[in-house]
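If you are new to this repository, start here. Below is one unmodified record pulled from the training split, so you can see the exact layout before writing a loader.
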Amino acid sequence: MKKIQVHKTLSYTSSISIKADGNTIWDNITNVQIEQFSDPIIFKILGIPKPLKAEIITREMGGKRIAYFDSGKRFLQEITTWSPNTKYSFDFNPEKGFIVGHVFDIADGVFRILSGNYVLSKTGESITLELTTSYSLDRRIYFLLNTPVLIILKIFQRYLLTSIKENCE
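And here is the target side for that same chain:
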């Protein structure tokens, strides 16, 4: 008997052009410092924890990075691609009880954050930074939640990429 997958895996990608060198951008995506930026008001309304910083523990494929949030929860990320100044990927691994939207546990609930991927590519005098986030939704509520999740993910990626750009330029 074939087992039915309960979760549907999806991804969303956005990008931004940054006028900085690859080393500066790389430093700002691997060791993120964004606590000084105001997060969008919608995050507060929807109960989305504010990201503060992320620190690399081990700089290699299979290495670790920890992302900290104002809720006290963390992402214990495992690095899956480490290609300096080109590509950086990781699995999120949120701590149990990491709640967003006041009710959704993104570690093992109906909505889960799975992985992130940054790609840097030279375009003229700037570098395009592309961010892809993979997530999954329970198929039973996919049609109810997919559009709101995409809207919030788009806002979150824009906030994160804009903060990285401001740190770099």
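Two things worth knowing about this chain: Residues 142-168 form the longest helix (27 residues). The first strand starts at residue 7 and ends at 18.
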